[in-house]
Every structure is written in structure tokens, then in C-alpha cells.
Amino acid sequence: MTNLDQRKTPLFDTIMKYNELDPAYFRIPGHRFERGISNRWKDIVGENIFKFDLTETPLLDDLHNPEGAIKEAELLAQEVFHADHSYFLVNGTTCGNEAMIITTAFEGQKVAIPRNAHKSALMGLIISGAEPIYIMPELSDEWGIQGGIKPEDVRKTLEKNPDCKGVMVVSPTYYGVCSDLREIAKVCHEYGAVLMVDEAHGAHMYFSEELPDGALVQGADMCAQSIHKVTGSLTQSSMLHVKSQLVNIDMLEANLHIVQSTSPSYLLMTSLDVARYELATNGNQMINNAVNLAQYARKEINEISGMVCAGDSLVGTAGVKELDFTRLIISAKELGMTGFELKGILFNEYAVDVELSDYINVLAIVTFANTKNDIERLLNALKDISKTNAGKKEIKNEIFLPELPDYMMSPRQAYFSPNKVISWSQAKGKIAGEMIAPYPPGIPVIYPGELVTDQVWEYIESYRIRKRHLHGPADSQLNYFKIIDK
Questions:
Q1: Cα gap 8→12, rounded to integer Å
Q2: Is residue 122 a contact partner of residue 114, using CB atoms and an 8 Å limit?
């Protein structure tokens, strides 16, 4: 492909031209530019943004059959991310993960899925009917978090299941943990399997030599990215990229019609267009600024008594090939403080809002839009917390995982099977109708369609009686549990 002019913003420019026409508007949406928007809202945010909330007018192209401005914007993104094909997503990386799975494996076929996959992977399995072959990520005993997927584990999986159509890997994870995608790609392609990467948290990694390479650069066949998470578009806007001859493009595009809205937001798509422009023209400086801020914060945090921030020592352990250093994994366990407690104190007492917490850590995400002042506020809060909590007994990590439970039916079969709610105390030996993922480490120990073994029940019960976080079940207290009624 010839080099494209990355200074262009085709969708943004086309909407501007359309608005200059000042048309008499008889189309959806009903608010008619800014005129139908509540003054209560407009008084705070202004009017112009609402002029971008349009629909498929004669000038503005159609996301489901792009030929004009949207197509040009996607081609520009394709070049920036080193892809053969790129697609704008208005239903988030959730629909990208779904599309990758349902394009790769159908009912009766197999696809390898990491046990720590986002719940959108389960949704994809429900839609496709494919049989999951689960790969367990490594665990970091020191930090109590999920590590990476090892290439040798992928090889073992494909040796046992040579008919497996594809492998999904989450890299980087929420915590910035990166698996060895280069080696995993080689293994997958030896077996003719498609490598799908949930790269929701990694779109920025294509723009800095200080960070691991992006998934496509390392040999992935497809990846889905949440551009909104760290690179400047609006929430819910993502991209899906393909760089492979193994992917059926016609099937993928048809599947995107299934998982995407028929009323795509032009606000979201425009935000993707201009975010790509900023990355293409200034991405290296933007992302390096984020890395420098995060590395400064990491160094300073590790000098605070009782505070520890993960860094190079995590690399090479627990399947961690590399680490996204813009993620600050912070622990105050030496001060006797859980991550849940630290997160609450940071927000309630210091107005410092971090992304998430687990039993051991909090996670702070540094992006190009953070400032030195943001970092200093975080550091000052941690220093103050250190002083006021000195001398407490260190908490210990208790992370371990039971063996994988018996697979009884596919997620699709489980989803469409009759179910009923029973007391959790009676769940042993039953087929699960919902997922349970104790946090930490956030890895599901039971999926719908799997047998609640004695070991799995005891493991989950140990979390329940200690009132630890359980993600997935409708009853978060787990007094009751949904099972397959058969």
C-alpha cells in the first residue's frame, strides 16, 4: 500500500461539510442537531458536539457498507496499525471479540480460550456454538494476579486438539501483562490455527519503542482494540484489525453485521477518526510521555515505606514475557492493607480515583492525557497513607486455583438449556448455569456447562464465607446459584 496522508480526518471533515449545508432535517435522530437537546445539558457542554450525532445521510457513508468517508477513515487506521483490514466498532471490543470467535469456529468445532478471557469471549462461544478448549494462564504468587499464557501450553493444547480452529490470547491483560505472542503465533500457524488477540488494553503499544510490540506486529491474525481505553476516542469505540490469509474476510464482515448496532453512532466513529489522526501524527510523543510519567511514578512509589509498585521483577515470571509499564500495580500489603481498602481510602479521603482493586493491589492507568500534577497527587496520597498506617501486620496472598471442572456441555447448550435457582449449599455435583470468578485472581473457576465438583465448590465456598468478591453469579452473596435443570 502506498503511504496515505495521515493528516486527513475524512469522517470529521465530511460531517463538517454536511453541517455547513444547514439542511432542513427530516431524519433520525429526533433532536435535530442541538435544537432538541435539553438546555440543562447544553448549558454545561455547549452545542456543537450534538451536530455530530447524525445518521447515514447522502454524504456520511454507512458503517455496514462503507464506500466513502468511513471507508477512507478505516483505510487510514489500517495503515497506522499495520493491518490488511481494519473496522470501526461502535459496540466496543466486546463485539470485536465476539466477531473474531464466531468467524473462527462454528458449532461442533473447537477454539482455545484462555481461562481469564473477558466475558465477551463467552458471549462469542454462545453465539457460535463452538466448543472451548481452555488454557490456564500462569499466576503470580507474589502479586496475586494473572500472568501470561505460555507458548508451550498453547503447543500442548494444539497437540491434543490438532483440529482446533483458533486460539485467543488476552495480551496485554488489564494489569499490563503481555504474553509471548511471537512464539504463540508460530505455534498456532504450525497447526493452521488462527491467533486472535483481545488487545483491548493495548492500542497504544504500536506507538512507543519503550513498550512491547503490538499484537499484529508479533504475528497475530486478528486483534480487537479498545481505542477509548488509552488512546483518546470516546467510550465504547473500538477497532478490529486483520493481518492474515487465514481469516475469511467475507464471513468476518457478515458477522460484524450481527454484533454491531444498525444505528451506529457518528460521534463514536468520528472520535475514532480523530484519535487515529492524533496517534498517526503525534503518537510517539504522546505515548512516550505516558511511559515517562508512569516510570517516574513507579520509581517514587517504590521509595515510599510500605508501598510497592510492580516493575521489571515481574517480567520473566508467571508467563510474563513483557509488561506495559504505563500500568501501575500498587500494593500496600506491607502496611496490612488490602487493595480494596487502599482504593477506598484513595478516593474517599484524597479524591484519587484508580481503575480497580483486588485483595493485594490497586491498578492505576497512566495515559498520554495525564499530567505531572495527577502523578504528584497520587504520590502525595500514598505517602500520607504510608505514614498513617505504619507498623501494621503484613497481609499474605492466598491465591491458588482448583483443577478445571468437568466439561458437560458447550456454553451455547448451557445458555439455551432450562435452568433453575437452588441454594448454593446444594450445588455440588450440579451443572453450572452461570459463571463464578473469585477476585482475585479474577479467573473463572466454573463456567456455564461445567460440573460443580467438590474441589471447585470448596474453593468458592472459602471465598464466600470470607465475603470476598465473586464476579459472575446473579446473587453476588452466593446464597443461591443457577444450575442447568436436567
A1: 9
A2: no
State how far the Cα of 484 lies from the Cα of 375, in Å rounded to an integer.
Answer: 49
Question: Do 100 and 224 form a contact (C-beta atoms < 8 A)?
Answer: yes
Stretch 412-416: mean pLDDT: 95
Look at residues 97, 104, 107, 101 and name the one whose alpha carbon lies nearest to residue 129.
Answer: 107
DSSP assignment letter at 331: E
Compute φ and ψ for 481, nearest 5 degrees. Answer: -145, 145
Cell of 11: 469522517
Q: Please answer whether residues 436 and 445 qualify as being in contact, where contact means their C-beta atoms are separated by less than 8 angstroms.
A: yes
Write out the DSSP string of 221-287: SEEEE-HHHHSS--TT-EEEEE--SSS-HHHHHHHHHHHS-SS--HHHHHHHHHHHHHHHHHHHHHH
Q: Which helix (H) or strand (E) holds 131?
A: strand 131-135
Please check the confidence at residue 368 and state whether its pLDDT lies above 90: yes
Q: What is the CATH number of domain 411-484?
A: 3.90.100.10
Cα-Cα-Cα-Cα dihedral sign, residues 69, 72, 78, 79: negative
What pLDDT score was predicted for residue 441?
Answer: 66
Rounded to an integer, what distance in angstroms lies between the CA atom of residue 484 and that of residue 486? Answer: 6
Helices 69-80 and 266-301 cross at an angle (nearest 10°) of: 20
What confidence tens digit (pLDDT) does each residue in 251-310 have?
999 999 999 999 999 999 999 999 999 999 999 999 999 999 999 999 999 999 999 999
Q: Whole-angstrom Cα distance, residue 66 to residue 62?
A: 5
Domain ranges of the chain: 285-388, 411-484
Residue 469 has a pLDDT of 83
- Domain 285-388: give its CATH code: 3.90.1150.150
> Between helices 266-301 and 10-21, what is the axis angle to 10°?
130
Q: Give the position of cell 480515583.
A: 353
Per-residue pLDDT for 78 more than 80? yes
Q: What is the pLDDT of residue 296?
A: 98
Give the separation between CA 89 and CA 259, rounded to whole angstroms: 10
Average pLDDT of the chain? 95
Sequence-separated (6 or more) residues with CB below 8 Å from residue 160: 133
Outline where DSSP puts E strands in 308-371: 308-309, 322-323, 327-331, 356-357, 361-365
Which range among 185-199, 359-373, 387-401 shows the weakest confidence by mean pLDDT?
387-401
What is the DSSP code (8-state) at residue 360?
S
Angle at 238 between CA 3 and CA 62, to 5 degrees: 75
Residue pair 218/185 in contact by the 8 Å Cβ criterion: yes
